[in-house]
């Protein structure tokens, strides 16, 4: 029970406890994902409905609305169109074109009109399909506003942005926007064929369960290592103490030498001296 051993044991126990908490956190995320998958599956199966019947008067598209099919009618405001950069669809980098749709009640909804694959190393699409004039009806999937932590990627700058965020767009464009957006599935009149379709959601449990197992395994390794090396230290100490405790103290060589008869220099023992002549 030395100070070094106690300090090492405390560090290992703290690390093991942290691993256990991380494993529990992964299981908590797994539960959240299962709940979200249930909501997504239910929303995908629901029939299309006007957005006013799905989203409340607060105009906030929340987790309970994600992937629900909504139908909206209005006019696009092409002057406030935004090019969203650094997008990836089916492992293809490119851009998404977001245009505000002014609804009949005066509110506006961001509509993700489609995906344009990047050609070579272009930083912006060379051509963007024209915005339909007149009234259009769009059927698509409701999505929540995207957030990038403390970054300002949801604020449009020079007609481009990295995220799709209703409130941030509304502050910049001067529009009363829904908090969220609509990813287009169908449009009347039909959308330009240059736009790529969006894939559906991934409905699975993800890697959270296996991540939790890994963290629990790391905790067991830490505790097992503490027990193993503690036993090694004890065995080593016992081995070092064993010679002093077995067989008694070594013989006093000085006493043994004094008990032997002394032999003078140049004088031989009488038992070994040669007979006289």
UniProtKB/TrEMBL annotation:
It is found in: Cell membrane; Membrane. It is a multi-pass membrane protein. The chain crosses the membrane at residues 209-229. GO terms for cellular component: plasma membrane. Residues 268-277 have a biased composition (Polar residues). The keyword Transmembrane applies. Pfam families: SURF1. The keyword Secreted does not apply. Residues 236-277 are annotated as: Disordered. InterPro entries: Surf1/Shy1, Surf1/Surf4. Keywords: Cell membrane, Membrane, Transmembrane, Transmembrane helix. Belongs to the SURF1 family. This is SURF1-like protein. It comes from Kribbella italica.
């Amino acid at each position: 029970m030395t100070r070094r051993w106690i300090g090492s044991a405390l560090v290992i126990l703290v690390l093991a406890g942290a691993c256990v908490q991380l494993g529990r956190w992964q299981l908590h995320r797994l539960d959240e994902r299962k709940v979200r998958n249930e909501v997504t599956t239910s929303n995908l199966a629901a029939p299309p409905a006007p957005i006013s019947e799905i989203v409340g008067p607060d105009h906030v598209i929340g987790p309970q609305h994600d992937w629900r099919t909504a139908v909206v009618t209005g006019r696009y405001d092409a002057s406030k169109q935004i090019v969203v950069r650094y997008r990836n669809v089916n492992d293809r980098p490119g851009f998404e074109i977001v245009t505000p749709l002014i609804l009949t009640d005066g509110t506006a909804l961001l509509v993700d009109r489609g995906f344009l694959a990047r050609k070579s190393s272009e930083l912006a699409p060379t051509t963007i399909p024209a915005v339909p004039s007149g009234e259009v009806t769009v059927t698509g999937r409701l999505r929540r506003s995207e957030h990038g932590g403390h970054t300002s990627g949801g604020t449009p700058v020079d007609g481009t942005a990295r995220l799709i965020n209703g409130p941030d767009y509304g502050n910049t464009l001067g529009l009363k926007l829904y908090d969220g957006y609509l990813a287009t599935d169908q449009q009347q009149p039909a959308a330009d064929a240059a736009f790529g379709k969006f894939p559906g959601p991934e409905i699975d449990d993800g890697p959270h369960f296996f991540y939790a197992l890994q963290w629990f395994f790391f905790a067991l390794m830490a505790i097992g290592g503490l027990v193993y090396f503690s036993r090694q230290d004890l065995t080593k100490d016992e081995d070092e103490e064993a010679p002093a405790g077995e067989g008694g103290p070594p013989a006093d060589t000085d006493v043994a030498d004094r008990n032997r008869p002394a032999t003078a220099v140049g004088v031989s023992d009488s038992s070994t001296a040669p007979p006289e002549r």
